[in-house]
C-alpha cells in the first residue's frame, strides 16, 4: 500500500511533542497537513482519506492524553486510513495513554501501523529527562517512522490487518488533574503573551493584575514556555517538596518503547 500525504495532529504545550513530530515530518517525503492543537482545536469532523498517513502525537498527562486534545482527536475520521500512534512522556510512565490513542484511532476508521512512547523533559519537573529528546531519541523516532512506512509498503491491503499489541489497560485509568498551577511573580509586566497562548483561557490580565483560574488551568505549562522574562513558574512549598521527591523517584533514565 502507498500513501501520498501525511496529516499530523498533536498537542504540545512545552514543545517536546512538537520536536518528536518534527523528526517524523523530516523522515516523510510527502506533503503535510498540520493540526497543531495548541494553536487551534479541531471543531468540525475531518475526513482523512485512505491515501493519507495519519500521525497522532500526544503528551501523557496523568497516564492519559490531555482531555482537550482527545476532544479534537475524536473528530478525525479515517476511511481505512493507515496511522501512527505516538505518546510523549516525562520519564515516569505512560500508563494507558498509548492504548487510548490506538483505541480511538481504530474506533474512528484508522488502522495502526506502529505505536511508540518516547521520553522527553518533564514539563512540571524539568530536571527529569532534562536533555530529552536527545540526538539518539530523535534517531529512534526517525528509524521508527521508516519502519512504519516499510510496513505499509509491504502490506497488500488493510483487510485482516492485525495491529501491534500495546501496553495499557481497559478501562483506562480515570482522568485526573495535578494540583500544581503556574503563577506569575512580582516582576510580571503584564505583556499578555501567556494569556494569549493559554489553551483553556485560564489566565486573565486586567490592568496590572494577573489571575489564573485554578479550575480551568490544566497545568500544561504553555504559559511558562512563552514567558519572555521567565516569571511564569510553578511555585510554592508544596511544589518544592513534591519536586524533590519526584526527581528522586523518577530521575533514572528510561528508554523509548516502539511497537510494530
Ligand atoms: C498535567 C501533566 C501531567 C503529566 N503526567 C505525566 C505522567 O503521567 N507521566 C509522565 O511520565 N509524564 C507526565 N507529564 C510530563 C509530560 O508528559 C512530558 O513532559 C511531555 O514531554 C510534555 O509534552 P510537551 O513538551 O509537548 O508539552 C505530565 C505533564 C503535565 C503537564
Mean pLDDT: 97
Name the overall outline: globular
Which CATH class of the largest domain is shown? Answer: Alpha Beta
What binds here, in terms of ligands, is:
flavin mononucleotide
- β-sheet strand percentage: 15-25%
Q: Label the CATH architecture of the largest domain.
A: 3-Layer(aba) Sandwich
Q: At the fourth CATH level, what is the homologous superfamily of the largest domain?
A: Flavodoxin domain
How many beta-strand runs? 12
Domain unit count: 2
The CATH topology assignment of the largest domain is Rossmann fold
SS-based structural class? alpha/beta
Number of helices: 7
The termini sit apart by 16 Å
Strand order of the largest sheet: 2-1-4-6-7-12
Q: Which sheet architecture does the biggest sheet show?
A: 6 strands, mixed
Radius of gyration: 19 Å
Helix content: 25-40%
Q: Could you explain how this protein is built, in words?
A:
The chain has 260 residues and is an alpha/beta fold. It has two domains: 5-172, Flavodoxin domain (Rossmann fold, 3-Layer(aba) Sandwich), CATH 3.40.50; 183-233, Alpha-Beta Plaits (2-Layer Sandwich). It is 28% helix and 23% strand. It has seven helices and twelve strands. It has helices at residues 16-27, 67-73, 97-107, 135-154, 193-197, 222-226, 237-250; strands at 5-10, 31-36, 46-48, 52-59, 76-78, 81-89, 110-119, 183-184, 203-206, 209-212, 232-233, 257-259. It has a six-stranded mixed β-sheet with strand order 2-1-4-6-7-12, sandwiched between helices. The protein has a two-stranded parallel ribbon with strand order 3-5. A hairpin with a 2-residue loop joins strand 9 (203-206) and strand 10 (209-212). Helix 1 (16-27) packs across helix 4. The longest helix is centred in the middle third of the chain and has 20 residues, at 135-154. Bound molecules: flavin mononucleotide (FMN). Flavin mononucleotide (FMN) is lined by residues 12-17, 59-63, 88-93, 120-124, 178, 219-221.
Amino acid at each position: 500500500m502507498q500513501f501520498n500525504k501525511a496529516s499530523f495532529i498533536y498537542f504540545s504545550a512545552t514543545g517536546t511533542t512538537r520536536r518528536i513530530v518534527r523528526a517524523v515530518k523530516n523522515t516523510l517525503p510527502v506533503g503535510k497537513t498540520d493540526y497543531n492543537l495548541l494553536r487551534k482545536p479541531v471543531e468540525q469532523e475531518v475526513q482523512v482519506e485512505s491515501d493519507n498517513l495519519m500521525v497522532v502525537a500526544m503528551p501523557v498527562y496523568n497516564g492519559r492524553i490531555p482531555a482537550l486534545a482527545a476532544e479534537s482527536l475524536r473528530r478525525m475520521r479515517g476511511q481505512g486510513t493507515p496511522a501512527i500512534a505516538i505518546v510523549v512522556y516525562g520519564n515516569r510512565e505512560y500508563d494507558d495513554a498509548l492504548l487510548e490513542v490506538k483505541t480511538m484511532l481504530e474506533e474512528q476508521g484508522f488502522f495502526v501501523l506502529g505505536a511508540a512512547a518516547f521520553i522527553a523533559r518533564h514539563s512540571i519537573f524539568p530536571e527529569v529527562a532534562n536533555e530529552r529528546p536527545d540526538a539518539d531519541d530523535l534517531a529512534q523516532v526517525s528509524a521508527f517512522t521508516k519502519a512504519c512506512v516499510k510496513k505499509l509498503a509491504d502490506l497488500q491491503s488493510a483487510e485482516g490487518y492485525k495491529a501491534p499489541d500495546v501496553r495499557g489497560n481497559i478501562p483506562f485509568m480515570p482522568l485526573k488533574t495535578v494540583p500544581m498551577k503556574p503563577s506569575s511573580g512580582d516582576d510580571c509586566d503584564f505583556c499578555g503573551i501567556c494569556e494569549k497562548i493559554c489553551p483553556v483561557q485560564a489566565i486573565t490580565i486586567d490592568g496590572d493584575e494577573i489571575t489564573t483560574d485554578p479550575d480551568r488551568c490544566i497545568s500544561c505549562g504553555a504559559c511558562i514556555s512563552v514567558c519572555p522574562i521567565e516569571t511564569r513558574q510553578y511555585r510554592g512549598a508544596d511544589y518544592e517538596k513534591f519536586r524533590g521527591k519526584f526527581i528522586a523517584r523518577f530521575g533514572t533514565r528510561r528508554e523509548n518503547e516502539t511497537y510494530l
